[in-house]
């Protein structure tokens, strides 16, 4: 296929799509050649957000309909979506100083059943996050806690805020963002559990305080905070953390804390750090912490 040239004679070729950075772990940004191609119009942003969440993969037309209009798209849905895609291509072409046809052939491509936004895998933050997470999880499975920790940290450092924080999400994006945010929290808990196992409570104490405040009924995070405080020699604060959490759970849920958290409390009272340092670790972690 011949290269397509823009108004200034620039060719887009493969280099433009390979230079495209897509960021969804925070505010949405799509950049190419250091030029921001993220539109300001809400509907275009919503379409681009779903394409970005699935960068380098096919985004089905039906999913775009459902994202924009829910379960009852209007009769004009196909034409309206076609308009939004055309507007996106024109705004990208303007940012890159190339013809819109170049964008449709190289960056935002029509495929049978939908569209594909092409991006540099090394500059797509969600793909980077998944690769680092795979490395971290593999190191944890093979009992290499000290190797897993920096991989988890590198993965979590890619986040700049909640996924697609500046997008008004419809039903499809809402599910995707919730899953991504839950993955972030789960990865954070794994990292903290390993740091506690390695005897580094001060490395995670401030982060745990912030997380516990953000998730006031989350037992595992509060349990990890109790462990970190106890290991740091602040047993009274650990006990206060338990009692404050218990009051909230009783008041808001009408329940008592789980038996697991109550056992942790007893471990802390009896000063058994070799036991309660295992809090939050799954079977893989506990195998190499014994």
UniProtKB/TrEMBL annotation:
<keyword id="KW-0805">Transcription regulation</keyword>
<keyword id="KW-0902">Two-component regulatory system</keyword>
<dbReference type="GO" id="GO:0000160">
    <property type="term" value="P:phosphorelay signal transduction system"/>
</dbReference>
<comment type="similarity">
    <text>Belongs to the AfsR/DnrI/RedD regulatory family.</text>
</comment>
<protein>
    <submittedName>
        <fullName>AfsR/SARP family transcriptional regulator</fullName>
    </submittedName>
</protein>
<dbReference type="InterPro" id="IPR011990">
    <property type="entry name" value="TPR-like_helical_dom_sf"/>
</dbReference>
<feature type="domain" description="OmpR/PhoB-type">
    <location>
        <begin position="13"/>
        <end position="119"/>
    </location>
</feature>
<dbReference type="InterPro" id="IPR016032">
    <property type="entry name" value="Sig_transdc_resp-reg_C-effctor"/>
</dbReference>
<dbReference type="Pfam" id="PF03704">
    <property type="entry name" value="BTAD"/>
</dbReference>
<dbReference type="GO" id="GO:0006355">
    <property type="term" value="P:regulation of DNA-templated transcription"/>
</dbReference>
<feature type="DNA-binding region" description="OmpR/PhoB-type">
    <location>
        <begin position="13"/>
        <end position="119"/>
    </location>
</feature>
<dbReference type="InterPro" id="IPR005158">
    <property type="entry name" value="BTAD"/>
</dbReference>
<keyword id="KW-0804">Transcription</keyword>
<dbReference type="Pfam" id="PF00486">
    <property type="entry name" value="Trans_reg_C"/>
</dbReference>
<dbReference type="InterPro" id="IPR001867">
    <property type="entry name" value="OmpR/PhoB-type_DNA-bd"/>
</dbReference>
<dbReference type="InterPro" id="IPR036388">
    <property type="entry name" value="WH-like_DNA-bd_sf"/>
</dbReference>
<keyword id="KW-0238">DNA-binding</keyword>
<dbReference type="InterPro" id="IPR051677">
    <property type="entry name" value="AfsR-DnrI-RedD_regulator"/>
</dbReference>
<dbReference type="GO" id="GO:0003677">
    <property type="term" value="F:DNA binding"/>
</dbReference>
